[in-house]
Task: inverse folding
């Protein structure tokens, strides 16, 4: 709980220090909600579809997931990760970067920093570092584009939340199904066919 609070507070302080515009008031808020909900639905659907890929399911089945799951889904992901990262990268760093390097330069700065910030996560989960940095950097660029497109941090917040929550729920589902199959033994095959 302390880490989640510290991360969320740090994101908020960075927003205040940089006076980053959040666009969380109408009409920008409505534009952000529309764009974020549409893009988030596409992202969540794509993540759900990847669970049909055996290699993805295997990766999800062996990954050590944070506990307790309800706290991870309801607090750690939305507040400690999504809010903290969107405030720090898409709001504060993008604003400071735009002032120094122009709007496009600010978007690239926050995207590169976002990708590099995931090196420790990749190492902690034994994921390959370079693909992790490239994938999260690309996601950071898209999140920045979404924020710029509608003028609201609501859009990248919703998409980031959809990606993280869909991935978490998918991994929990794969692991739950695996535990059920192990518990049922040979009868698990009959259950999955029905």
Result:
């Amino acid at each position: 709980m302390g880490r989640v609070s510290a991360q969320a507070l740090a994101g908020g302080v960075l927003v205040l220090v940089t006076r980053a515009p959040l666009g969380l008031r109408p009409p920008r808020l409505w534009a952000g909600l529309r764009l974020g909900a549409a893009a988030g639905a596409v992202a969540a659907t794509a993540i759900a579809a990847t669970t049909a890929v055996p290699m993805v399911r295997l990766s999800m089945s062996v990954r050590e997931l944070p506990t307790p799951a309800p706290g991870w889904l309801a607090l750690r992901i939305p507040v400690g990760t999504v809010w903290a990262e969107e405030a720090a990268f898409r709001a504060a760093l993008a604003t400071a970067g735009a002032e120094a390097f122009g709007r496009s330069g600010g978007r690239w700065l926050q995207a590169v920093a976002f990708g590099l910030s995931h090196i420790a996560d990749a190492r902690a989960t034994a994921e390959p570092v370079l693909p992790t940095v490239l994938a999260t950097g690309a996601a950071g660029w898209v999140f920045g584009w979404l924020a710029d497109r509608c003028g609201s941090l609501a859009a990248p917040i919703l998409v980031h939340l959809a990606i993280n929550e869909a991935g978490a729920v998918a991994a929990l589902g794969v692991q739950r199904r695996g535990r059920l199959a192990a518990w049922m033994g040979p009868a698990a095959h009959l259950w999955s066919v029905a």
Notes: Residues 190-194 have pLDDT under 50 and may be disordered. Residues 108 and 141 are 6 Å apart (CA to CA). Helices lie at 2-18, 28-50, 54-62, 69-116, 119-124, 129-150, 154-184, 187-193. Residues 69-116 form the longest helix (48 residues).
